[in-house]
Amino acid sequence: MIQRQSHSTIYVIDQGEALEFYRDTLGFEVRTDMPMTDEGDLRWVTLSPKGQPDLEIILAPLAPGPMFDAETAEQMKRLVQSGAFGIGVFETDDIHGDHERLGKRGVEFVSPPEEKFYGIEAIVKDNSGNWFSLTQHKK
Amino acid sequence: MYSCSDVHPQTYRSLAHARDFMRHAYRRPINLPDISAQANLSPYHFLRIHKLTYGETPHEFLTRLRIERAKSLLAKGSHNVTGACFEVGFSSLGSFSTLFANRVGLSPSEYRRHVRSGIVVPGMVRPLFVPTCFFAMLYGAPEAG
Question: What is the predicted ipTM?
Answer without folding.
Answer: 0.86
